[in-house]
Each structure stands twice: as structure tokens, then as C-alpha cells.
Amino acid sequence: MSSFRMQRSSLRLPALGLGLVLFGCSAKDKILDHLNAFDFESHVEKYDADGKTLTERAAPTAARIGMPVASGGKIYVIGGIKGSTQYVDNVEIYDPASNTWKNGAAWPNPRVTQFFDINGLICAVAGYRDVTEVSDVECYDTAADKWSKRKPYPTGAAALNAVLSNGKIFVLGSESGKITERTAHAEGFVYDPAADTWSPITNVPNVCTGPALASVDDSAYMIGCPIGEGGDPAKGDRTLLYRYSLAANSWTTMADKLPTPYPGYGQVAVVNKTIVVEMADGNNDVLLFDTVAKTFKKSTAPVDHFVMNQYVSWSFKGAYYRLVNFQQDIGSDGDAGKQNLSSGHVWKYDFTADTWTHAGEHRQDTRTTLMAPLVFADSVFLYTVYSTTDLSIH
User: Fold this and answer.
1) Which of 51, 124, 149, 299 has CA 20 to 30 A from 306's CA?
2) Does residue 321 lie within any of the structural domains?
3) If 0-12 CB within 10 Å is exposed, 13-18 middle and 19+ buried, where does residue 43 land?
4) d(CA 191, CA 368)
């Protein structure tokens, strides 16, 4: 899952289920125009954690910014965008065992959205098309290779703060409106795909834009509230931590606050029962929240974290990994400055020793548009999309 991710000099388009990053865009209303100027190529690599290597695998054929989903040991690249109003409806399915791709049933309602894999049922919930929100819901049955139209989301929503638990989607607040004009909402809902029903749940304590979300056992955690009601940062609190009990349908404000204010739109992963929170704004702090002890601590400062990064992170076999494609400096005017291509490293964090160790190398490229890790029980794949030209736009 991915939420609307906005940073000082980059924009990650909302709800793609991937880490799409356009660096250097100085205004939000330029983004869709920029998309028209590029073609794209996709790559898949397998990451060997023991050998610390990334190996190129067969690539999908469609030229688009696709939306990858891991389900049942396979990778599904669903729909996507090519240009500001060119929505791709094809579905490509990758089988790691045979290293081959095949086509699935076309998506009947392509748009920018969030995908949720519920035991082989991949659901597209709300989103937007041509910068305008939609409330549609469709689900793709991976076994039957068939799409079905479902009950729409109860309110208009372009992006959802949502987690999966026990085969249901819990929406803990949302954002509505055009991509360039968002309004946050506190209303919560739960979707049961078996019954095809949306039911209201207790509202989020604060109206928030840009919180981090993580699910551990029967609890969901909302980390930080960077922007409050009405788009006002003063009404938010970047140090707040909320816990939502899925069973009791109730919210609790945790006593232990974030030791570093959360700026919004960072990276979050769960390793065992620890939530790892990365700042994504150039702050070197990586926060570790122990959901059992209910306490925060900071890790040793990670390597390759300098002002602005393009990176992804994932949890695999009880360890935490981060891959930094390149690092980007920030000019004095707040816009994107020079790009430092000294990275391309994979790093692994040791929770016991509190150390970062080098765990591999990846291609460094300013044409990188998207990096999305897809994690299975015994393997990790990296789906990457490159533009045909440099995306460093000022």
C-alpha cells in the first residue's frame, strides 16, 4: 500500500501501490504535463539476500508506469499510466518459477488507485482519473482471471489511509478532491470483500494528511499527523502516535511520542513486532517503535542519507533493508539541486547490534521513475520503471 506522498522537492503520485517519484518538479500542476513527455521501460530483478546480488529477470512488455502487486507467489502488473491521460488497462503476470510473463484479463476501469491483495483477490479501491476522484471498486480474482465490479467506496476519495487485516480493508481516514487540491477526512470504513459491504468504523481522532500507517497483529498505528484539518500544519502534530484496535473499534493516543517529528510521506516497514519509520526529508533519524514495549528509539544513523533520497525499503526474514538509488541535494531556494550519484547501495539493518551493513548494489540512474519491492516468503523482487530521458526537471 502506498498513500499520497509529498516531499519538499518531489511528488510521489498518490495511491499507486508503488513508489513513483518525480524529482525536481517545482509545482504540483506541472506533474501531469511532464508525464506526457516520456516513454517508459520496465525491469524486474531478483534480490539474493545471502549473495547480496540483484539479478535481471524477464521484463514485462507494456511501456507504462505500472502498478505491481505480489499475490500467491506471482507478480501482477496492473494498469498504469503513460502520459497524463493515457490509462493502460492490460494486466501482465510474472511467474518467478519459470521466469515468464503472460497476459491476464484487462482491467475494465483503469485509473490511478490503490490495490489490496486479499488472499488472491486484488481489489482496486477509489482513486482518480484525469485528476478527478472516483469512488469505484473492482476486484480481480487471480485464480479465475476475472474482474468483478464491487460496491463503491461510500464517499469520494482519491487516496486512502488503509491497512489490511483478517481479509478486510480498514480505511482510517482519506483524502478527496483533485490531485492538486486535496481535502483530508476523518471518516473510517471497513470493507468485507466476502460480503461486498462497506461499514462505518470510529473516526480518526485527528483529520490528517500524510501520516504513516502500519498494522501489527490486531492493531493499526497512525504515525504522525503532519498536516491537520483544512490543510493547516498548525492543526497537526508530527509527534503523535495513535493506535487503532481493529477488534474493539477504538482509538488510543499512545503515551510515547515520536522522538523526531514525522514530516510525512516517508517509508514504513514492520519487522516482527517493530515498526521502522524513515523520515524521507533528509533527516538521518530512523525510528524503531517496539509495539510490545510501546517505546520508541532511534537506530544508528543510516548510510547514504543526505538531504533528499530516492529509496525503497522492505522487511525480509526478520531483517530490514533499504535501497538508495541516488541522493539528491537541495538548493538554497528549496528546489532540487545537483544529484549525487554516489549511491546505488543496498543496506541491511541489524536490530541486535544496531548497525547497518552493505548488502548489495543496484543500478544508479536519474531516469528511475519507480522502484517497488515485492516480497514473498522466500524471495524479494524489485520492479523498476525507467523513463527514456532524465526525469530531473527544474
Assistant:
1) 51
2) yes
3) middle
4) 34
Cβ neighbour number for residue 252 with a 10 Å cutoff: 13
- pLDDT for 204 beyond 70: yes
Average pLDDT for the chain: 82
What length does the chain have? Answer: 394
Instruction: Say what the pLDDT of residue 371 is.
Output: 83
The CATH number that applies at residue 215 is 2.120.10.80
Q: What is the pTM of this model?
A: 0.86
Which strands form 267-271's sheet, in the order they lie side by side? Answer: 267-271, 274-278, 286-290, 295-298
Three-class SS of residue 119? coil
| Residue 334 pLDDT greater than 50, yes or no | no
Helix (H, G, I), strand (E, B) or coil at 324: strand
pLDDT band, residue 18 (cuts 50/70/90):
very low
In a domain, 96, yes or no: yes
Domains: count for the chain: 1
Cβ pair 337, 330 in contact under 8 A: yes
The mean pLDDT of 243-263, rounded to a whole number, is 93
CA-to-CA dists, residue 205 to 184, 236, 237, angstroms: 13, 11, 12
In this prediction, residue 33 carries a pLDDT of 55
Q: Is residue 121 part of a domain?
A: yes
* One-character DSSP codes across 248-281: TTEEEE-SS--SS---SS-EEEEETTEEEEE--S
Query: Could you tell me the pLDDT band of residue 38, with boundaries at 50, 70 and 90?
Result: low
Domain residue limits at 280 = 5-387
Q: Which of 135-139, 231-235, 255-259, 260-264 has the lowest mean pLDDT?
A: 231-235
Bridge partners for 356 per DSSP: 349
CB 31 within 8 A of CB 11: yes
CA 26 – CA 330 distance, rounded (Å): 12
Assigned domain for 337 exists: yes
